[in-house]
Every structure is written in C-alpha cells, then in structure tokens.
Design brief:
About 35% of the residues lie in helices and about 20% in strands. By secondary structure, it is an alpha/beta fold. The longest helix has 16 residues. The chain is elongated.
Amino acid sequence: MDKFSIHRVPLYPTIRQKQPTPTNSQQSFSAHLQEATKQELKVSKHAHERIKERNIAITEQEWQVVSDKVFEAHSKGVKQPLVLMDQAALIVSAKNATVITAMDRTEAKQQLFTNIDGTIVL
C-alpha cells in the first residue's frame, strides 16, 4: 500500500500585517495640500494646433497667471472667459479648465467673440 501523509492545515490562516513605516504627517499633509491646490489649465488639441501654427509663445509664468485668473473667474461664476494677453487671445472653458482656442492679438482685433461670459485682460 501507498503511504499517505496528512498535514495539518490551520483553520484560520495567519496573516502577517505589514508594519506601517513611520512618516512625518506634517510633510505628507503639506504635500497633499499643495497637490490638491495645484491648478493647471489643459490645452485642447485644436488650441494646441492654433498656438503652433500662429507661433504664439506663452511663458510658464504667463500660463500660471492665466490659470490663476481663470480659476478665480470660475469661482465667481464665469464659465467661458476670453483671456486677452499682450500676444494672444484665448477662449477658455473654466468649467473644464481647458483652453479651447487661441489666436494672436492682431487676428483677435478683427474677431467677434460669442458664447463668452467674461473677459480677463492681462
């Protein structure tokens, strides 16, 4: 006859709990707070193409100012502002935080803007 061996299996498997690594809660909280308050505008594909073909150059600091003003306008109920800058005019969906279209200022002088409910002049 064949020999059988019986192994005892515990009824409740033991689960090793990983010990949490100590973290500085103040640093992680400030990092989370900074991440939560970070607000950036997205640029739609259409707007990105317009910016490239019209050679519109917007610096990082200017984008930050535009973002801040768009989020401020959105907090005041503006849904679709026109942003007038020295070199460009942008139509932005504040609700979606997305630049919809862009044009240079010389082209913007000849345009009639519709479906906007606010203007931000920088």
